[in-house]
Amino acid sequence: MVDRIKAAVLGATGLVGQRFVSLLASHPWFELVALTASSERAGKRYGDTVQWLLETPMPSNVAEITVAATSPDSVEEAEVVFVALPKEAAMEIELELARRGKIVVSNASNYRLEPDIPLLNPEANWNHIGLVEEQRKKRGWRGAILKVPNCSTAVLTLSLKPVLDKFGIRDVHVTTMQAISGAGLRGVPGYVIVDNIVPFIKNEEEKIINESRKILGKLENNTVKPLEVNIYATTTRVPVLDGHLESVHLVLGREPGGPKEVIEAFESWGPRPQELGLPTAPEKPVIVRREPDRPQPRLDRLNGRGMSVTVGRIRLSGRVLQYLVLGHNTIRGAAGTGVLIAELYYKIKINGLI
Amino acid sequence: MVDRIKAAVLGATGLVGQRFVSLLASHPWFELVALTASSERAGKRYGDTVQWLLETPMPSNVAEITVAATSPDSVEEAEVVFVALPKEAAMEIELELARRGKIVVSNASNYRLEPDIPLLNPEANWNHIGLVEEQRKKRGWRGAILKVPNCSTAVLTLSLKPVLDKFGIRDVHVTTMQAISGAGLRGVPGYVIVDNIVPFIKNEEEKIINESRKILGKLENNTVKPLEVNIYATTTRVPVLDGHLESVHLVLGREPGGPKEVIEAFESWGPRPQELGLPTAPEKPVIVRREPDRPQPRLDRLNGRGMSVTVGRIRLSGRVLQYLVLGHNTIRGAAGTGVLIAELYYKIKINGLI
Amino acid sequence: MVDRIKAAVLGATGLVGQRFVSLLASHPWFELVALTASSERAGKRYGDTVQWLLETPMPSNVAEITVAATSPDSVEEAEVVFVALPKEAAMEIELELARRGKIVVSNASNYRLEPDIPLLNPEANWNHIGLVEEQRKKRGWRGAILKVPNCSTAVLTLSLKPVLDKFGIRDVHVTTMQAISGAGLRGVPGYVIVDNIVPFIKNEEEKIINESRKILGKLENNTVKPLEVNIYATTTRVPVLDGHLESVHLVLGREPGGPKEVIEAFESWGPRPQELGLPTAPEKPVIVRREPDRPQPRLDRLNGRGMSVTVGRIRLSGRVLQYLVLGHNTIRGAAGTGVLIAELYYKIKINGLI
Amino acid sequence: MVDRIKAAVLGATGLVGQRFVSLLASHPWFELVALTASSERAGKRYGDTVQWLLETPMPSNVAEITVAATSPDSVEEAEVVFVALPKEAAMEIELELARRGKIVVSNASNYRLEPDIPLLNPEANWNHIGLVEEQRKKRGWRGAILKVPNCSTAVLTLSLKPVLDKFGIRDVHVTTMQAISGAGLRGVPGYVIVDNIVPFIKNEEEKIINESRKILGKLENNTVKPLEVNIYATTTRVPVLDGHLESVHLVLGREPGGPKEVIEAFESWGPRPQELGLPTAPEKPVIVRREPDRPQPRLDRLNGRGMSVTVGRIRLSGRVLQYLVLGHNTIRGAAGTGVLIAELYYKIKINGLI
Fold first, then answer.
1. A195: which DSSP letter?
2. Given CB atoms, is A299 within the 8 Å cutoff of chain C?
3. CB C47 within 8 A of CB C64
4. DSSP labels for C206-238?
5. Percentage of chain D modeled with pLDDT above 90
6. How many structural domains are present in chain D?
7. What's the pLDDT at C354?
8. Contact A194 C194 (CB under 8 A)
9. Using one digit for the tens of pLDDT, what is the confidence trace for C257-279?
């Protein structure tokens, strides 16, 4: 792949935008050609206008990029456009970009439940990318809109998929403990979260319920039939910088032989993105820790360079399975999965499947 | 009650010990006459040897008390002895004190499941204090051992009791987010908990399961028949100073008419300790907050001077009831409930019931 | 004082506004008659629109007050107006209110260095209130503008004043560790401050330097001659909710006999507001702690109901004096000092001095 | 260097021990052959007994090493021994190891001020390693004891050295804001440090004063003449995981032409370890950040892989120079400097200088 695919990031100065930039700065397939932000930042060097807050230094090659104001014209040069805008800002521009033939990989929450728009957590439902054909036919555009799931949902469904395939799932009860970065740079004031927990995140529980059912659903006749499963979710915000931890209680379809069979289901799982050797696909999508006190956000969030989820405290009682799962919310739960989706798209395309 | 009842605290320098001291320093019925600690502190002024860490200043009258080494002799003068020792240190001395005729109100986790020892969360099971008679008969002592429940269990069962009475409960799933103080002053290193969550607390889940069933059980024929209910618990430690938050998912015995009926059950609950006017009983044992983002540990832990639990985010779907409950773990979950138990004992005794 | 003085708070929903409300809700001299906020909150119950974040519950009597949009007309009924607005919003309205005869006690940073406007930290410079006469003459209004100092400055100068009076001060070097609440509710994002320190607060060091020199200056011929002293300040933001801690290094004018003489200077200080018995004046403006590890923000910020500063780690080497001082930034450093200024004004007025 | 030098770590399970292990696991010159800990861990796999808490996963090759009980015999195989023991445990064993001919590179605080024992912050005083000759002559051993400075001192003196060389220094006033890890894994309880600062660290200020004077002193006639300079230090503990931030106020010997000349002094500094190409020497020992709000612990502690210190907020007023300096306390302030010292020793030895 000698010529790299030209890529842009819309909303490149927020926390998810910074993760996109960080992952794309030295990507083997993609080349960053445009970064956009709100108009007051336009014309400035990225390195001067961004408040870089990641734990690793800003890649030196992106510091020099001149930021453009977010608009379809400003990413004309790019073939694939990664969207890290708020929902309201994303709605119109995504449609316009697809009409102009761009591959739009978006972390914004709009359109995630549209029947012809794939909502992709690649290891769990890589084949839903087939909706692109339907989308193009129906909408009459050459481009495509591909959606990244909600952060908690991405982490959760990655752990649910191998269990679902092996044992079936009837009920899902989940309580999340979500990191501050999930709300964006200014979303959670310090005075609200130090020595505290906020047991509410707007619309988050609905997203977990609806998006999980779509992601785990079956693609049949050019549409996704959502998984029939009861999902109950309670979401909270905790004083952790990065890494969503989720306490999961499942009622399975059939009783596993024992916890070892469950561990085996997680560890032996080798889904398609791994088979395809996608650069951002982690070696193991689900890592199982056997210590009694893992996963922990600070210690496990960067497992698999932030793309693996880590499962621990597996407890089985009949058909009731309990565990905790942790994933990096702005990598696995946002930008990293976005990049993985783009990799999947181009790999499939090269193989002539789309 | 002109002459106050002489009281001692065993293990007065730990975090629960400090709460006992704080609550008893100006109690209308009890008078602190002895504070004990490990032998290296013996002979020192309490004010000099304790590392006082509560958010309110140390009561000036207790600073002058000379600390004694923990032993049955050192609390000879007291009639009621509050125990804030670790389990191993508590086992022998509690028996000896009861043999010497003391009323032992203990926060230590030993003996909580002994059939003849009442495990009391007074609003939920005040009548279990009747076990004292059986205990005295069986053990041949004049004193009594009365147990304070585990902190998470105290908070949980206070919210479960009115629901149980009104609708019945089949299943309880609970995920806790527990404060640092629950592990004692040195239990959770700063390096482990800042920007992190530890999803494991040793023996905590077993305590929640077994103690809840006993507390919510029925006293019949001088023994408590545990409640038959499935309880699944996952316990975590979060970077919060005080206040355990619990995400609760219940399957009820019968379907309430609507969320209002559930709120009504919580708010109309006026159990015995409140009727008896016990000084430490909060006006409302369960406070319901209607805002979408409550309860929060920092904002709600001191409700009812730390003795109320606060319930919020009530969601009902058929027979499935979800809510969050928060309580102050070293007040409602430890020292405060200990003092309330002692008040209950003496009130009942005065009324000639024991 | 049978009829209480009618009072209003401008900007009542921010963190300083909440402190004003909290202090005034049951004040013996003042009666809250109006609370204002931005226009989108106008017409709502205060209890419904404010995001109350103080560690104590909202006073029930203020919850029912209907919030007005900030304007001179909306506080017509009040005689004294407490201002908790940002500087830009405060500039015009303060002038207009003074023209309308209101006593304006303002925490906003504008006008603090105006020659005819008193900048008051009452224990340190109560007599500067005499500038009001000059102000009225010069500006031709019946009202008055009285300014609360910058938060760090209020804490610092309260500790400097008794030292200055006794030993003289040549140089002041101060490094501050300032709490999150100092930047207001949304001023410091959680993602920026957890596990971090930000070593910069805009304009803060200039405020400390200039305001301290004015507060510690002499009132002569209707003007304040700033203290001639070298002040070097470095200000930082730390992950603490409330309470500014300051590391102070002084070169004194003369060498004290020993640390005891310094402690004596702090502890024997009994300035005018205390003599006058003002309700909000703490018993001791400066509390000295002798333990090696105090003051600490969480343990000492509420000393003297938040109005005392706490000094510790006093070290003397020749004419070099080092210590740490801590004060509650939104009480002593803002709303509490504002209320104390108003008390001073009315007490002096009753005595016929203004 | 085909055969790597065999190395051991004493006290390998603490936080500094973990950093040593992390740095040595894939070091080009050294090979880990022994890890020791207290006797109850002896015989266990390192991976099983250590509570690994670094932000990066444990190197897989060290997990398999069997931990030995700390004793001179247990590191017989090693040529160089890195010591991460507490002072009391280190005193005897360091002497014995040197007698046995080992090169002892120690982070323990004992012996740091002994005249014949070099206290090395290599960029600042690499030539003090010459004391080894005197040490061997005087003590009659073939080995050597080389000391790592106190963590705050290492960070401070790295920033002082280029300033001293260029402008001279008369007075140093420093206020530190030190990370939790500086006190070891269990040194700072979570309940003490969340939402708080502790303004005292035992013996720390004396260490900063005495060690800085030795490090910055001149080696003459086989002894170090301490720098004559007034140092005033105030040390505090803050809720930050890693990274000591220090507010520095200097009175210089001569007035620089301007801040640019100071920046130039920092940035042009290319001391001996960098010239020698030592593997652990960072490209720039001092990094200057020009943004108004840097350095910040979370964002700058890993600069230069934790071996650079970062300076910011440089302010010059006549001969008074103020700045903030940040360094990683367990890398630059402990294990990293230890490894750098060992590299320096072997490089010098190979060159025939020792």
1. T
2. no
3. yes
4. HHHHHHHHHHTSEEETTEEE----EEEEEEEE-
5. 96
6. 2
7. 65
8. yes
9. 999 999 999 999 989 999 999 99
pLDDT value, residue B283: 96
Residue whose C-alpha is closest to residue A112's, from A128, A97, A96? A128
pLDDT of residue B212: 98
B295: preceding bond cis by omega (within 30 degrees): yes
Residue from D201, D234, D329 to probe the interface with C (highest C Cβ count within 10 Å):
D234
Q: Provide the CATH number for the domain around residue D224.
A: 3.30.360.10
Decide if C55 and B194 are in contact by the 8 Å CB cutoff: no
In this complex, do A298 and B196 lie within 8 Å of one another by their Cβ atoms?
yes
C179: nearest CA in chain A?
A191
Cβ neighbours for D342, distance < 8 A, ≥ 6 positions apart = D7, D30, D80, D82, D103, D105, D146
The pLDDT tens digits of the residues spanning C85-113 come to 999 999 999 999 999 999 999 999 999 99
Q: Is C127 exposed, middle or buried (0-12, 13-18, 19+ CB in 10 A)?
A: middle
Tell me, what's the pLDDT at C351? Answer: 77
pTM over 0.80: yes
CATH of the domain at B98: 3.40.50.720
Q: Are residues D133 and D163 in the same domain?
A: no
Q: Which helix (H) or strand (E) holds A177?
A: strand A169-178
- In terms of domains, do D92 and D199 share one? no
Is the distance from CB of A231 to CB of A212 less than 8 angstroms?
A: yes
Mean pLDDT, rounded, for D21-26: 96
Radius of gyration for the alpha carbons in chain D, expressed in angstroms and rounded: 19
Same domain, C68 and C157: no
| Nearest CB to A232 within list B197, B249, B324 | B249
Q: Burial code of A318-348, b = ≥16 C-beta within 10 A, e = fewer?
A: ebbbbbbbbbbbbbbbbbbbbbbbbbbbbbb
Active site residue B128: no
Neighbors of chain B with 3 or more C-beta pairs under 8 Å: A, C, D
Q: Are D245 and C176 in contact (CB under 8 A)?
A: no
CB B308: neighbour CB atoms within 10 A?
A: 24
The verdict on A299 touching B (C-beta cutoff 8 Å) is: yes
Task: Please name the residue of chain C whose CA is at the shortest distance from the CA of residue D242.
Answer: C195
Q: CA A176 → CA A151, A214, A228, distances in Å? A: 11, 20, 22
C117 and C223 share one domain: no
With contacts defined as CB-CB under 8 Å, which chain C residues touch D295? 199
The region, left, alpha or beta by phi > 0 then psi within -120 to 50, assigned to residue B304 is: left
CA distance A294 to chain B (A): 6
Specify whether the CB–CB gap between D279 and D28 falls below 8 A: yes
Question: Which residue of D55, D56, D192, D310 is the best one to mutate when testing the A interface, meaning the one whose CB has the most A CBs within 10 A?
Answer: D55
CB B33 within 8 A of CB B8: yes
Q: Which two tokens stand for residue C73?
A: 């007309």
Q: How open is the CA angle D159-D165-D166, to the nearest 5 degrees? A: 95
Q: Please check whether residue D53 touches A, CB under 8 A.
A: yes
Interatomic CA distance for residues C96 and C91, integer angstroms: 9
Region D340-353: mean pLDDT is: 89
> How far is the alpha carbon of C179 from chain A, nearest alpha carbon, in Å?
9
Give yes or no: residues D93 and D206 share one domain.
no
A143 and A221, same domain (yes or no): no
Q: Are residues A309 and A264 in the same domain?
A: yes
Pairing of strands D169-178, D244-252: antiparallel
Read off the tokens for C138: 């010069």
Asked if C200 and D293 come within 8 Å (Cβ–Cβ), the reply is yes
Residues of D in contact with C245 (CB under 8 A): 197, 199, 236
Report CB contact under 8 Å: B295, A175: no
Domain identity same for A141 and A271: no
Per the structure, the complete domain to which residue B52 belongs is given by 5-150+335-350
